[in-house]
Amino acid sequence: MSPESTGQNEHYLTVYRRGFRTWRGNRPFWAGLFTILGGLPIAYFPYANMHLGNMTIAMSTTAGAGSLIIGVLLVTLGLTMWFHHIVRVFAGVAAILLALISIPVANIGGFIIGFVFALLGGALSIAWVPGEAKAAAAGAPETWTQQDDDARAPEYGQELHGAAAVPPQPAQFDGTVEADGGRHRAG
User: Fold this and answer.
1) Which residue in 129, 146, 152, 168 is a FRET match for 72, CA 20 to 30 A apart?
2) How confident is the model over 55-66, as pLDDT tens digits?
3) Neighbours of 71 (CB within 10 A)
4) Can you name the residues that pair with 52 across neighbouring β-strands?
5) CA-to-CA distance for 110 and 23, rounded, in angstroms?
């Protein structure tokens, strides 16, 4: 190995950062983060006491338990998006529904802050799609693209001279010719 080779003498923070980037790229990271950030104010504000000078304002309402449940569920859905990204669509739809429910139940959705973050996280989770793996070896099968069909199009119907090329259709079953008057062998 040459003294110029990479990876051998890298700082441990660089290694962790690259590992985190790889982990983050394989899941809906931002969707989970926004959903978690949406659940925190929804769960926090009903139990918070704000101080204005010598006066204490309590935000607690009769729906405090409902706010706590909605906030905890949103945090759980955010973690689910991170660690079980297979159920990302379900988690996204559930996050959007919980965000909408938080408007009347949890102090206008955590004063709109939690509502917006949870709604954005749910939408990002639904929209996220895993990336395609790149072919590592030269002999690996290639993925199909429309350009592949366009390249093969002239081989179908050379005699058409520029007309739309239609691939040959398989032979259809002819139901008019039936043996034994329509009965099968067993009957």
Assistant:
1) 129
2) 877 766 666 788
3) 27
4) 55
5) 30
Separation of alpha carbons 121 and 126, rounded Å = 9
What is the separation of C-alpha 46 from the centre of its chain, rounded to a whole number of angstroms? 31
Quickly count helices (H) and strands (E) in the chain: 7, 2
- Tell me how far CA of residue 20 lies from CA of 27, 107, 125, in angstroms: 11, 36, 19
Separation of alpha carbons 106 and 42, rounded Å? 6
Cα–Cα dist 114/129, whole Å: 25
Distance CA 119, CA 121 (A): 5
> Any idea how long the chain is?
187
Cα distances (Å, whole numbers) of residue 17 to 6, 8, 12, 164, 167: 15, 16, 9, 52, 51
What is the CB neighbour count within 10 angstroms for residue 139? 6
φ, ψ (nearest 5 deg) of residue 50: -100, 140
